[in-house]
Amino acid sequence: MELYVHLPFCVKKCRYCDFVSFPGTESRMESYVDALLREAALNRKNCEEAIDTVYWGGGTPSLLPPHLLKKLACGLRSILPIAAVSEWTVEANPGTITPFWLDMALENGVNRLSLGMQAAQDHLLQALGRIHRMEDTLESVRLARKAGFQNLNLDLMFGLPGQSLTDWQHTIQIALLLEPTHISGYGLIPEEGTPLFLDLESGKLALPEVELEREMYDLLLHAMASAGFRQYEISNFALPGFACQHNIGYWIQIPYLGLGLSSASMLSLRRTEDGLYYTRRTNTADLEGYLRSLRDGLLPVASVQNILPGEARFETMMLGLRMNQGIHETDFRRMHHRTLESCFGPRLRMLEGRGLVTFLNGCWRLTREGMDLQNQVLVELMD
Ligand code: SF4
User: Model confidence over 287-338: pLDDT tens digits?
Assistant: First the structure.
């Protein structure tokens, strides 16, 4: 089982961001940590299995002051079965971490840091509305190394307005010089309603052409391979032994508990002769509503969805095809008590004919073109 904890605090809202995160809510941090611990206690019965990985995402979890970081980590440890966690990631943003915060994180079990570097050009960081500049990334990595963090991810973004291929190449080169164990490279997706989306809509900004964006992705694939990083998912690359186990857990459908604002949980997983059943539960995204529910001793749940075998099979395809290892026929049969052929065979062969998926040694995978056209693949696989 896995544990995700959402920390929704940010210094300022980035111009492309539609995550559940708020600036100017520092005064709510302590109440929020107390609420998270109450939520953990209310979920104790959902965690019969030991938790293998923990991920604190956001928001900007590195904004949590050291004493609250300690309170949250110790509190979770005393409530949930997280004694034998193998990977504990915390997201951090350059410019927000201090030596004391890093020491406190390490002392309390965090062993992986994920740093939002995004780009190496200050003009691009500024256009994205990020609070940091390139020198803050360099300093944050230096501090993390000095504190003793060995497992370090850098998040990078491509397909940005005004970003050239040379900018992107330079960003990758600098990221590699910082010697991370893991790199995530995401194409920008303009989310409706964000300031960046409005600027694109009004013509004030323009995205790179599709061809240039593909070239950027190809550049990333080649640079990662040359540097010894193995691609294990569309956007994720790791040195041997450093793939993110928490994210892999989502893609292979391991149950997870999500705590905090807007977080999702996958619970009550049952394997029957008909296939897989589970429940997806999603928390409210309203900060005051979240705090109020937990003050009243209630779970802050906004929706509960019972996933039936047909939907579970589609989710296996949707999540599994993201991974380079693809979906093995034997794994599919073990999970769903049905053959992959009987569920998706004709549609997979049609996609194979279009060059979007490939079949080798019992495994279906996306081709390079299939990675670009992943949404089309999924539409074809839907019932
Ligand atoms: S730091 Fe991350 S979560 Fe916070 S506003 Fe920026 S993109 Fe959103």
Answer: 999 999 999 999 999 999 999 999 999 999 999 999 999 999 999 999 999 9
Per the rule left: phi > 0, alpha: psi between -120 and 50, beta: everything else, 259 is beta
Domain count, the chain: 2
Residues with CB under 6 A from ligand 1: 10, 13-14, 17, 19, 21, 58-60, 93
Q: Which of 249, 282, 310 is the last residue of a domain?
A: 249
Q: Is residue 382 part of a domain?
A: yes
Q: How far is the CA of 17 from the centre of ligand 1 (A)?
A: 6
The first and second tokens of residue 115, run together, are: 């740093």
- The long-range contacts involving 141-147, CB below 8 angstroms and separated by at least 24 positions, are 141/115, 141/178, 143/97, 143/98, 143/99, 143/102, 144/92, 144/97, 144/102, 144/113, 144/115, 146/99, 147/99, 147/102, 147/103, 147/106
Q: Indicate if 143 and 17 belong to the same structural domain.
A: yes
Give a yes or no: residue 268 inside a domain: no
What is the domain range of residue 349?
321-383
Cα-to-centroid distance, 157 and ligand 1 (Å) = 13
Which is the closest atom of ligand 1 to the Cα of 129? Answer: 6
